[in-house]
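User: I'll paste a sequence; please echo it back and then give the predicted structure.

Assistant: Echoing your sequence first, then the prediction.
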Amino acid sequence: MRRPLCFGPAAVTFLMVPAPPGLPRRPRTAHHHHREPVRTRAVTFPSRNAARFAEEVKREVEAYFTSRGISDKATVGMRLKTVLLLGGTLGLYLAILLGGFGPWAMLGLAILMGVGVAGIGFAVSHDALHGAYSNSPLTNRLLGLTFDLCGANGYMWKITHNVIHHTYTNIHGVDEDLSVSPLLRLSPEAPLQRVHRWQHLYAFAAYSTSTLFWVFVKDFKYFLQKDLGPYTNKKHPRSEVISMLLMKALYYGWSIVIPLVVLNVAWWQFAIGYLAMHLTAGMILGIVFQLAHVVEGTEHPLPDEQGAMEEAWMVHEMETTSNFARDNRLLSWYVGGLNFQVEHHLFPRVCSAHYPAISRIVEAVAVRHGVAYNAQPTFRAAVRSHYTMLRRFGREALEAQRASQVELRPA
């Protein structure tokens, strides 16, 4: 029997009742700043609206696979892409170790390796860690280790991304993806600092450091952090701590120790190449993930004083998520369907190779039921929209704050 294609994380219960087709989106209640931090309350999605949408979109996507007699897991093309990305990136690494190239050629290989590492994260590790690559847990586990081999921790990713981000998307104080750095304000509910006035100018450069921070700081920070998203005093199995340390050591070994031992280059030359690889991968990963939720049209809702969200979970995901460049086949191939984030959030256990096909189904059902379907037409439009939101959450918010203070100042 085929497993359900759409699921809500364990903390989410689907309690929805029919809503008339074509129902307009309800106006948002006003945001209240300086409220009790969200993580101190249990956030729930008790709304009983939009059951027809949820049932119909699941039924039609299920019918898509059943009528064609195909699996919702990896296709032949997906498996071929896996071989190309893993083999190509390994080939670049071996080419660097063998040397024989000039300094500029070595730098070019390092940059291409960054492109390969980002591609592995997008198109192999991400599907595997969601259990979307194969029906075999062992296959998903083994392919998920590519994430650890690239320096990140798969266990922690499953907690912060699969559970927290996918459940509490764009909810400030819970969704860890909104608090990547105090230098960046990615939510209208985040504290506003003077430095945010310039974030639209430095944000993209900051994104390029994301993988460096990840492999050297982020995972250690999260393992030591007592409160993580909605979790308080989070405990981690000792086996996962040991596994993280061993995989980090393996990553540092192949990416730093072996090149320094094998290559006949000065340490600073190696450092330039290593930084080039990470800055490339970080820039690509950082931008693509931000285009899914911090663009025009996406919502940043908050729960009420009892921790209840206004919308049902599936509608919440539709309103907080956006696609981009759906017709760009090369981009879709490289980013593993992550330009179809709407479909990914509704059907995270479906392999990304199927997202282009089912996106038309999801969009059609959403239109019939008056549910939001956010999409930017091109990659450039999505980047421009993200830039607009960076300005809105930074410079424009600061200017509005100052204007309101002037108005409130006594004569």
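Confidence is low (pLDDT under 50) at residues 6-36. The beta strands are 322-324, 374-376.
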